[in-house]
Amino acid sequence: MINAGIVGLGWWGRTLVEGVFGSSKEIQFVAGSARTHTEDLKGFAKQHNFQLYSTFDDMLKHPGLDAVVLATPHSLHVPQTIAAAQAGKHVFCEKPFALHGAEAREAVKAVEKAGVTLGLGYNRRWHPEMTKLRSMIDSGELGVILHCEATMTFPNALQLKADAWRASREETPCGGLTPMGVHAVDGMIDLCGPIDEVYCQSFRRVVTVDADDTTSILFRMKEGMSGYLGTMTATGGGFSFQVYGSKGFVRLEGMTHVAGAGSEERRTRLFGTCTFKPIAGPAKVWQAEGLDVTRATLEAFARAAQGKEKFLIPTDEMVHGAAVTEAIIRSADTHLPEKVRKV
To answer: Which of 210, 214, 254, 289 is 20 to 30 A from 130, alpha carbon to alpha carbon?
Structure first.
């Protein structure tokens, strides 16, 4: 059993705690830190049996702490990862790992030097439907892969207040890219390999805060296939991920993390209807297997921290994902295609 501390106890940090509380034999939260201790938060900590600290540094000193889980703004991920590694703690970081490839590489070096495990919260990699899709690609069942495409939407930005950290362009560039779109980018890296070039357009249509709500991105992978990602933060919630090959395509549909939805729904309803359409014959349609991907990802991290298995996402892919994010943001600024820099 890994004893972990949770840093950042907003709605997603609490979801992580709820995902394993009283049900996991791999990981438990024994400490947490947040800047403001409301009565509601104090009650949550008491209900879920962990000690609450006012600072990250104080929480790192909690007796018997093995690991930290970072559910903090993106700008804090790298320095907090480095500090935790230097304190000898395993680190699980929520996505995105970083907004710049060089910073991600710096954090990975600190983790490797300390000899601790690094996990990253791209939880869709653990879903059985993504495993099936990966197997179909690897076995050649889809033929030569031509294109990968995703659309991710939710209405969350319509409810953002101006002082919320997600309302900051510095923290959340390109609208829905960092809160949800990076999941699809990671999926493309996982299934199609490294991304070579991107082109992004991102703008604001209806939200009142100074943040984009409509973003579209084109990709070209090093292996030759193309990709597309669209995110919108001011419409109904939805998720679609499709891979097209010369023998047919697979479409996975589901939900995104809509603020205000119940914890169980956010953890278990990411995948719904699945379709395989071969180039000849009828389509096969089925409902996705149910899985709490939040719990599955945290438990995989715990097993990796105990040396039982390797974490599913290699650190080089974590760094590459950050470099792709950096190129997307750069393209939105220059209005030009941008190469993904190797770091």
So the answer is: 214
